[in-house]
């Protein structure tokens, strides 16, 4: 019978008959034995196997088909079709939510719960002819039953259940899932449209000042307490709340826009559509109408029935399970089970398991569906399309071989865990060698979402192709027997926010999305941050409220609790409370919020710190109060760019310009003498020194340099890759460590380039001559681990001329490089290693010691057999292997040299850290990187001062040792503490209070191997214990938790992402910008807000004192002195602009602030807005209010404003109000001028302009003022006297205070 994907001639004579059945088609083993790479061809009769041999293997269930051959149709064909395909709307849905196909290999012909006594007629020969051509989708799909497109259909189905996140999950690759998982969206927003109003109103009314004014406003509804227009009290509060809510809304909208950018990042996703077994079409493509058409053309003979049944039952190994094509999806639409194609330097959008890795230099697949479904779809990016593989997928290496890929990829994880090393990720052999069209058969079993970024356990299962089987018991047995599985671990995963570093493409299946990714689980939710200044003002307003209550009670008590105008004493007391409500200034929050917007504008428009963005404009004052700075290392203090700076070869050290001498030695060593054919260089090759430098010392040094450069060029895990850029071929290097890349770049610079490297061999090229000079066969590689701290390699050198090189009898050498702490005991005795490594460490360089050892063929043979034996041990395998390596290799190595690699620091990091330390800020460095790396950077960045003792606590597992370390530290509070994450966790668990009380006193703390959660915990701990302001700065996704836990979060726009800067309160482009942000902008913001808030309180308090004096003079009656417009105008147009202009004031110049960082240290004491300064302002307000109102009443009289007052009393009252109110307004303007330190033209304009506005509005205040009196001389001399008495004493006191105890900024300015 023709294979289903091949053309069948409708008029060809049919070879099959009842007597001559092709038994091979009933034999699954025979079908399985065919190569998966070729379609199953029909064997000719001559080449068929003997029937005896075939028949012996035919399962009974397949022969049962014969019983169906003589059966006639008992029911209409439409009913048959309903029973097979419609299947009561999905009764045949399997666990992954896809429909069982009517012709799939493994599916039972009839569902077990709906077995009917009939058989399904298979397509006729004509149908097989038609099946080779795919109809357009609009013709092929019936309108009421769309084609089954895996990965699209059912994705948004409401029938899906929410997946329980506490249980493990089974992910069907490339298909819809049975459970619903969270959307893959990043969200840094604080509010949703529904939670915005409740949360913001709650935040606003958690401030005492707002709840106080709400109560005052509500009191005006009660007639007995009404003092004026209701709007007088409600409008200011509504204005304040609207301004604040508007600002919060704008901040959050900006966050949402930034999130939307990240969520809209496009990714290539593979879409799958299952092929129906038998015709290669989707199941909907075979309708009953077409069946009838075939019937009419072929007749209803028994032969047709047989062919139809054979067509249905045949094992169709030649057709891939699914066809696939590429679509582009935004990041937010990625779902669990999607198979995503990633390229070099692309951010990983979700937590995934890697399925396949292949090179980029092959052509991508067509993005449209293949036209002929019967032919196997092309493997993505040009990997040769194969037919369905045999069930033993691990033996099918077609696609792997075609791609030329080894199933490896490197990723950068510095955005996740802070580690700079590239991580090697591997694909499972089960998926790497599997055709992409078969991926819908994969199931990934993974654990529940977890925040551990270095741990993952799971399995990948390959389900068999569904076959026609009639015996349900046997069917279950076949399924369980044929499922293949392979383990998955951390090496098979790529987590969200890592970046693919390899020059290859990767296919990966999404396992965790959105809030369930490792990154999101390690990130704390964003919180609304409140500045310390606001909390302090909140406390002061409570004091003012108590003051108001006390004053009201005193006035009622002085009136002896009598009835006034028919009102009980408690009603009078309530009216007094409302009259004095201006003591607690409602406009304070508005002024401060507007001031913060001005500070944010100044920060964002500062040309010396370009690119700085203020994302949270509610806390700029906190920049001036920072006491602890918690900084990330990678990408924050360092650029994460390594450079080889120094090399020492025992007797001589090379650095900087001296590297040219190394290059000349290398050139001499690897250049073939004139007249000789080019040949390979081995370590035993004699070093040929030029005649000009033939001294013995020069020869020895030259030989040493050659050996160390050769060792460095061979002992590594670096792979060179070439790429086309702007028409030029550019070589780049891939490795798990940037240190190794730096060393290989250095060897290239001095003349020896790594040309090629794979798992078996390595080739080195001379840069001068362009000839291949060294070729080795790699025998063993011992990779670097954080435990061993070293890496080694055993190589066998090729020797002889290039044309006839041989590795027979080649030299075998063991090379090793590692940290000085472990290499000291491995290399042979010497007298210079310790001293030289200490010198390099003091310079902040990362040191590596290089050694070598020659092995005889016999020694290597013995080692190899012992090593292989140890590698098979079931118990203590690692220790057994390590013992063998130590016995044969790791002893008495010849010491070749020491290298020093520098991790380049960010611009101006050293002076920035020094200045911040002088400003009294304690600096902690929290990193996910290794202990040695953290120590080097702490030294090179001057975080640790020269000669400062560094106390290291690492790998601590016992409580008693922790206690000993803490006791030691108590006696050395000037030391720097270096602690790793494991020890930190132990201390925080058992000695939390003791540790933090000690650590906060130390000048510097370096915590390495920290998880993102630990970073955040430390920030919380310092905040809670010290109650001081903590600033956290970082650049990676692993810093987001820490940034959000801090009082002030600063994010640096990193090379690999903006996640930290998006989640931060302030975003900067370089670490050195932090200095100006804190020392200059932080100082100004705090000083200005402190002055502004005290002035607003003074403004409210002074008018209340005037009201008090008037009430006492008017027999304690609770009547208003200034009502309606005067009250509103006083706090708005008559004083607001001059008072607000204080946000432009500054006490020192920027140069002075940078020159004397000690000035910043003073701000932490909070003296600008302290209880002392507040009480001074209260006393000034009481004095001025008493003088203004008292003198006005003495000079003019009191009068009365009540409805029953005589015209004379009313006139006297208006005259008195015109004097006192005018003095009050002018007093405020002059007080503003007295407070200014540095004048700005806006200040002058606002003061003069406001005075003009006031006097210009007086003619319109006829309801409140006696205008005739205002224009008289009597008014003006009384006005002048009152102003003089209220202003001169406070100003004299201010001058005297400056003279006796000048502030620090005046001392440094010499003013």
Automatic annotation (TrEMBL):
One of its GO terms (biological process) is retrograde vesicle-mediated transport, Golgi to endoplasmic reticulum. Residues 1-181, 278-317, 362-407 are annotated as: Disordered. ATP binds at residues 632-634, 740, 784, 817, 846, 927-929, 1009, 1015, 1038-1039. Residues 40-50, 288-297 have a biased composition (Basic residues). It comes from the Eukaryota. Residues 92-101, 122-144, 167-181 have a biased composition (Polar residues). Residues 393-407 have a biased composition (Low complexity). Residues 1062-1302 form the P-type ATPase C-terminal domain. This is Phospholipid-transporting ATPase. It comes from Lentithecium fluviatile CBS 122367.
